[in-house]
Amino acid sequence: MHQRVNILGTQVSSISSSDLLADFKVAIQNKKLIQVAITPVNSILAAHKNPQVQNAYNTAHYVLCDGMPVKWASTFLNTPIVERITGLDLLPNLIAFAANESFTLFLLGASPGVGEKLKEVILQQYPNCKIVGIYVPPFMPVFDAAENKKMVDAVNTATPDIVLISLTAPKQDLWITQNKAQLHPALYVGIGGAFEVMAGLAKRAPKWMHGAGLEWLYRLIQEPKRMYRRYLIEAPLFIPLILRQKFSRK
């Protein structure tokens, strides 16, 4: 069992990338269903406001620290998280891992055409990688029963080892939580917008911005209409809430 750190009620995993992949290998070999969530600030704030979202994270097997503010908060709370593991970093690592271990992949979600483009990019890098299915559900705030069944059936028919899910957070994490009982045992990873980046359809911030915690600014400049609420209205609430968490302990 790995350590977890309480960030506003969400139990965030404190684990290194190497230990994480070693755990994944054992789980896949033992045919276990494992849920992996990736939590930047906006996901933790969503969980803080919504018990259903917080339950999805706190019942997931791994809740990864995506975002320097989350890592900084853990240090400020005197419970430092070992490593920041973003979806953008985890996706290529998982692809390499799957290719090296001969584990099969299923791509679920993103916009039409993204999965096919990502498959093309993956096979250029790893010709032996086995992608056993791609399914793109229509955009719906909440999937109806008929569409949900199609998604579950698509995954279960393919029987993959790893299911990569790009439905945005926390929607992707709620979907896994709500369908665990029906899904084929596999590693289920809510990977967010990393499909588009690895497929070459969206750009990632320069490396110097990663360590400085400025990737949010790059994304805001790239997509101001979509990101302004997340970064300029919701994210500033994180600091006073972390201060309250720290000083309410004393």
Question: What key phrases describe this protein's structure?
Answer:
about 50% helix, alpha/beta, 6-stranded parallel sheet
Report the uncertain regions: none
The rough form would be described as globular
Based on helices, strands and strand pairing, what is the structural class?
alpha/beta
Order of helices and strands: EEHEHHEHHEHEHEHEHHHHH
Alpha-carbon distance between the two ends:
28 Å
Number of helices: 13
Helical amount: 40-55%
Q: Quick one: how many beta strands? A: 8
Topology of helices and strands:
Elements: E1 3-7, E2 10-14, H1 17-29, E3 34-39, H2 41-49, H3 51-58, E4 62-65, H4 68-76, H5 87-101, E5 104-109, H6 114-125, E6 130-135, H7 145-158, E7 162-166, H8 171-179, E8 187-190, H9 194-198, H10 207-211, H11 215-222, H12 224-234, H13 238-248
Parallel strand pairs: 3-4, 3-8, 5-6, 5-7, 7-8
Antiparallel strand pairs: 1-2
Helix pairs in contact: 2-3, 3-8, 11-12
Describe the overall structure.
The chain is α/β, with parallel strands linked by helices and 250 residues long. The protein is built from 13 helices and eight strands. The strands form two sheets. Strands 4-3-8-7-5-6 form a six-stranded parallel beta sheet, with helices on both faces. β5, α6 and β6 (130-135) form a beta-alpha-beta unit. α2 (41-49) crosses α3 (51-58) and α3 (51-58) crosses α8 (171-179). The chain starts with a strand and ends with a helix.
How would you summarize what this structure contains?
The protein has 13 helices and eight strands. By secondary structure, the chain is an alpha/beta fold.
